[in-house]
Amino acid sequence: MQNKDVALEKNLGLFGLILFGLAYMTPMIVFGTYGVLYEASTGNVATAYLFALIAMLFTAGSYALMAYKYPSSGSSYTFVSRVFGDKIGFLTGWTILLDYLFLPMVIWLIGGIYLEAMAPSIPLWFWIVAFIVLTSALNFIGFGVAKKVNLVLMLIQIGVVIAFCALALMYIQGSSNTIATPSLDILASDNLAPIFSGAAIACYSFLGFDAVSTMAEETENPKHNVPKAILLVTLLGGVIFIISSWILGSAFPDISVFAAESASADIAKQVGGVIFSSVFIATLVIAQFTSGVSAQASASRLMFAMGRDGVLPSGFFGKLHEKFRTPYLNIFIVGIIGLLALRMDIATSTSFINFGAFSAFVLVNMSAFKEYFRLDNSERTLKQKILHLVIPTIGALSVFKLLTSLDANALMLGALWLAIGVCYLIYLIVKGKTLTLDME
After folding, report:
1. What are the phi and psi torsion angles at 258 (to 5°)?
2. 3-class SS at 156?
3. pLDDT tens across 30-68, in order?
4. How far is CA 351 from the centre of its chain?
5. Number of domains composing the chain
6. Measured CA distances, 331 to 137, 297, 326 (Å)
7. What subcellular locations does the record give (predicted)?
8. Domain span at 100
9. Which H or E run contains 256?
């Protein structure tokens, strides 16, 4: 039974969860990382997003299934712990920390890069620090306030996405370009390797779907609202990413003349002029701020869950602010880690993050698979076979393929992070630390 002194306040419904997930996912990130994805996939950005969506939808199905069974703020850490035990659960939580702790850093880095492009006289470090301070302050007050801010910012963001696509279509009509038509030639063996590499990076854009499950203890009727939100956020985000990148790819088949990390700003200027380019950059920065709020909130909740269970020092990580009921110390830790953005680039940091996400995704799919064998014989219907066996198997295989498609540096850094986690787990075991879950 949870102590009321470490209980999170329930203030999110289905709409609030979807808003949270989309804010975390940031629909405009399709533009923010377009140039990087273009290089990785050799121009096949929309196809890379399609491959990523397929893998993420099956994995989202496993997350939805597990979130229905175990509605708590620990996400993959909780799911795997329940099925495979506390030790494997700890390693899952440790690997997903790689995603959650460093994702806000990437979000703030992308926002800073575009702001620096718009105002070169102001250094990048200023923008990154400003992001960190404002986001941390908002999360410190509580996500109930952040939710209201997210609603306004999300509506603005969706409006700019639609405007960008509309202007790109008008640009196509006024040029010699045409809307690209799907071709099976793209699936030739020579083309698949870069597409998988692009898809591995594109999955960064989908990470909001699993973050939804970290808010379960702050959600009304989580057994129903969390699974629905997970699936809807994944599908909605994927549709936005595929359509937007398809239109941009049709308008500009070759973007080699643009700087990869800020290519969309140049494209916005080409299709809409200086005024729209300024509006686009401003909205992208706002979108990054919105996403940063959600990412930092999720990271702090995951550390809170692990601290409450004692696998991280509970006196620090499992502590809530007396007035605002937020894990404020964890929020500040994420902010400090965000300063690493001053030394990182987008391509390396997104691949690094995805190592942790993919590792956890595979284990969640395996957990959903194993759950089937806990069912009574009378419960093992065709529907349950599909939900527990077919969907998780496809999800695990798809994600594992993406994991092996990450670049060598990401795999090396990810393996190092995992090795540190194993050493820490051994330390906990030697010290006789019990890794017992304390969640409803």
Report:
1. -100, 155
2. helix
3. 888 898 899 888 888 999 999 999 999 999 999 889 888
4. 12
5. 1
6. 9, 7, 9
7. Membrane
8. 4-430
9. none
